[in-house]
From TrEMBL:
Domain of life per record: Eukaryota
Pfam family, one: PH
Biological processes annotated in GO: intracellular signal transduction; regulation of signaling; response to oxidative stress
Family according to the record: Belongs to the glutathione peroxidase family.
Protein name, per record: PH domain-containing protein
Keyword terms: Oxidoreductase, Peroxidase
Start and end residues of each DEP domain: 26-100
InterPro entries according to UniProt: DEP_dom, Glutathione_peroxidase, mTOR-Rac_regulators, PH-like_dom_sf, PH_domain, Thioredoxin-like_sf, WH-like_DNA-bd_sf, WH_DNA-bd_sf
Domain spans labelled PH: 123-220
GO molecular function, one term: peroxidase activity
Length: 266
């Protein structure tokens, strides 16, 4: 690590800086964990002052000023960033994150396209309501897949002036069908990267397949066992319409004796 650190002070080679970042993220590196501040949880972050502590405790620098200067060099070369991109590196209780630990969905504080703007433009292949699994609860979100930009936006409602979160689908993202046992009477799939995963629930299997198809068309990889799972459905994975035209999930009749009758209809 010391050899890499010394090399960083002598050259601008990005591969050297990336190697230094790998050392910092190692098991014996700077402490990385979920932390809370202001009623909000920040995933996989470290504290600026703890990085300074770590550099001094491991005898890389003698003073906090020297370690802080190195922290700013690391930030400048993209080894890590402030969680909200609001601060340079400081020897304070501020949260920083390595790009490898960035969550799939990036929060948008303000700005960004509205639902009307997205639907009025080109490249939107799917839009509508889904449930997204939060830390504890399932939240209803209005989602839009923009194939032309390889992005998944989701809003709190259709009238939001900007998205609540956006997922970049272009960087090694995959999807996989998930078991309905995770949310009874719903049809689930996950959107996954190396560092994180998002879980969505649809009201019926048709909606699930349409969302997954739209995401694949936007550039997402479908994991192999997902295809196999989608081909092996039971009767309880489908929905049908009742006499009033309402969608009824057949899963509600699971563990009951069912009689399926084919009748002539117009």
């Amino acid at each position: 690590f010391l050899q890499v650190l010394m090399a960083c002070t002598r050259q601008e080679d990005r591969f050297v800086w990336e190697e230094l970042g790998e050392h910092l993220r190692a098991e014996d590196g700077v402490p990385i964990k979920d932390r809370s501040y202001g009623f909000r949880t920040y995933r996989s972050v470290f504290v600026g002052s703890e990085l300074v502590d770590w550099l001094i405790e491991n005898n890389f620098y003698e003073t906090r000023e020297e370690a802080t200067h190195m922290g700013n060099q690391l930030l400048k070369h993209g080894v890590f960033h402030h969680v909200a991109y609001d601060h340079e590196f400081k020897d304070e209780y501020l949260f920083y994150r390595f790009p490898e630990d960035d969550p799939l969905d990036q929060k948008i504080e303000e700005g960004g396209p509205s639902v009307a703007t997205l639907l009025g433009g080109c490249g939107v292949t799917k839009s509508g309501w889904m449930l997204r699994k939060g830390t504890i609860f399932w939240n209803k979100r209005y989602c839009v897949v923009q194939q032309s930009e390889a992005k998944l936006y989701y809003f709190r409602n259709e009238l939001d002036p900007s998205p609540h979160f956006v997922v970049n689908l272009a960087d090694g993202v995959s999807i996989q069908e998930e078991p309905s046992s995770l949310k009874k009477n719903y049809y689930l799939f996950s959107v996954n990267s190396k560092s994180s995963s998002l879980l969505f629930a649809c009201e019926n299997s048709k909606e699930q397949e349409e969302w997954m198809k739209a995401l694949v068309e936007a550039g997402v990889d479908m994991e192999q066992d997902t295809n196999e799972g989608m081909q092996e459905k039971s009767i309880f994975d489908f929905t049908c319409k009742d006499i009033d035209g309402n969608e009824i999930p057949l899963s509600k009749y699971k563990d009951n004796v069912c009689l399926v009758v084919n009748v002539a209809t117009k």
